[in-house]
Amino acid sequence: xxxxxxxxxxxxxxxxxxxxxxxxxxxxxxxxxxxxxxxxxxxxxxxxxxxxxxxxxxxxxxxxxxxxxxxxxxxxxxxxxxxxxxxxxxxxxxxxxxxxxxxxxxxxxxxxxxxxxxxxxxxxxxxxxxxxxxxxxxxxxxxxxxxxxxxxxxxxxxxxxxxxxxxxxxxxxxxxxxxxxxxxxxxxxxxxxxxxxxxxxxxxxxxxxxxxxxxxxxxxxxxxxxxxxxxxxxxxxxxxxxxxxxxxxxxxx
Length: 253
Hints:
five-stranded antiparallel sheet, 1 helix, about 0% helix
């Protein structure tokens, strides 16, 4: 059953009246729906109104959508990360509610640890986030976060944090030196690069049996053969190694 909105829609819209209601009971709970070419989250509010949010907490092209847009429900009862991600987050490498927060080793000093994340075209990435686990950064001299394409091209990086402390069990959100507008929907890599006496561990997922699926192209995680030493991220990185079988939580906002 199609649900037709009677007013324009954007990410901050109030509940909107609908025509053709009431909303079928399965869709009175959070559900995924399709709006034109964009994936969106539909949150029903009773049986006669509906709040629509783009699937990654962003906005529709042009900040609004024409009156009369039609929503066709796909499946009900989905609690995707638009409802569970920290406030302001646009995408996550894994759903926060399902992250087991495993203490994850990301490599030795100077290695570039990479984690795949799905980003949608048109999204403006301003910040990159990772969260340390039980081991803090010990005497850091340089570290930054960066965003890469699957081919290893640099999309943007944060400033070098030099000796700034990164304590254990601490969410670290760093701003890109220049916001990046995602040109094409797909997988990208968030990279964490730390030069320190002790590299911090990150909150992540459970280690895989041997990484056969994890490292099938495109690899979901890995450590680049390029060495990070100082300043911002290198212009390019080498192919992601297949030896890493753990993943870590990363996000963009």
